Amino acid sequence: MKRTLALLRVALRSNFGLTLVRHRLLVEKRDRWMVPLILLGVAGFVPLVLAYIEFLKFMFDALQPAGQETTVLTLAILAGQLLVLIFGLYYVLSVFYFSRDLEFLVSLPVRPSEVMLSKFAVILVNEYLTTALIVIPAFVVFGLLAKRGPDYWVLAALVFLLLPVIPIALAGLLIVGMMRVVNVSRKKDFFILAGSLVLLAAALLAQFSLARTRDMGEVMSLFTARDGLVQVVGAKFPPCIWASRLLGEGLTVRGLGFLALFGGGSVVLLLLLMGIAERLFYRGLVGLGERAAGRRRLSKADLGARISAGRRPVRAVFGREWRLMNRTPLFLLNGIMSVVLVPVILLLALKAGDASGPLLALRSFGTMDAATEILIAAVFFTVCGTLNGTASSTYSREGRQFWLSKVIPVSPAQQTLGKFLHSYLVAALGTVAGAAVSVVLFRLGAGRLVPAILLSLIGGVFFSALSMTVDLARPLLKWMNPQKAIKQNLNVLIALALEIGLLFVLGYLIKAVRSAGLDGSGLIVAVFALLALLSAASLAFLFRFAEKRYPLIAA
Predict the structure, then answer these.
(1) For residue 71, how far is the Cα from the chain centroid?
(2) SS3 of 445, please?
(3) Out of 418, 426, 442, 505, which could bridge 314 as a Cys pair, Cβ 3.0 to 4.6 Å?
(4) 325-372: per-residue pLDDT in tens?
(5) How do the domains of the chain map onto residue ranges?
């Protein structure tokens, strides 16, 4: 037990690096300028959280007269667990099989299950941060509005601690089994990527396969049956029913039964994962290091010769970024897949025909005025394209190989342009995916689709340049696994918060301008001009900043 606890402690310290952060801030007095930037980034989430809280209060008030207020908890818990399951697939893959510390851990006198348990703990703690913004507001709103006692808050804390265990364990079982199979092939990268996509598609289809269109009689019956909505919402993932009913029943006989189901299910799946790890974990690791080491890495002379042999510098840097993304399955899954995943989830959810929940409001799209629909569509396309970690991890993804960018005979501004084009291509892909979904779902005509696409594309320039500036200010080059360069990169969180905050600010500006009398095509032209000005300014600043910042980055 002492050996396991020591391994867990080391894994958590290595993952978060709190000792290093404290040393830099308090002893070396470095990076203090990041503190206000982090606070500003966190403040960017405040409008989104406040809007989410108001939505939860609205749902509670609407469902309470029918005795269905527990559905608020079920929806939040289901959203949190599915978020962990779907996005946790490649997170688990990264931490379990691509961490750089594995070559040291496997040589220690520890069992495979102990190594996996330490990795599991790292993922679990990080997923608490992921689910907190979704689950904690729902727990607080329900507890206050329902006037629950102290036992509710104790059970809410317990549910929060157990909430990610089941989805992470399920993802771990799938990944361990997949890696044991694909690792026998010579084309491991391809099969890892293909297997991850298959698992991701299966998780999405499983989520929406049980949903179907219901007539009005069925919908009304859901409000009259005990926990009718809870059953329908949670039928896709029963653990969320156990958790929500545990909170709803409290410390009663029924509540303790649901505690046994939820807690017992979590323990059983975790033990099953540890048992599978004893037999298959190290077998899935065999050959991964040799595969990575077998690739030929370009030396300084080789890379300089290739660039000076006639290839245009910007095109060469763009090609390098493209290969880096494609040759690392975890970068590809985190970056490009995320821009496609949002519109695909929306498409599946609305096509499923579920008449309950916030998606019902989207069905009114198509009955609004032209300017409103164009602006809403443009925001959706922008979210699909830019609110991901591709641009905000541009420099961090290079890791310890960033020294190559410092020595190649290409100016930092030209390198940054090549990197920007790569990030912008990913953003444009998200815009295309969002536009395709809008055409399928809402039959958006060309008169509204084209202006929305143009607004999204010009806005993508601004948001991509902004995200790259954040990462360039303090790139995360020392990471243990590729996943940390994106999912555990503070720069990604700061950029995301800034982008969300700026979208809210832009929304308030548009509302004020419309109130002043500017509307219709004039409003669209004004928004386009503002985004074009912001894009030009942000790009110019990024290029100048790159020239000053590159020599100061310690690779």
Answers:
(1) 25
(2) coil
(3) 418
(4) 766 666 766 666 667 666 766 666 555 544 444 444 455 555 678 888
(5) 1-293, 311-555
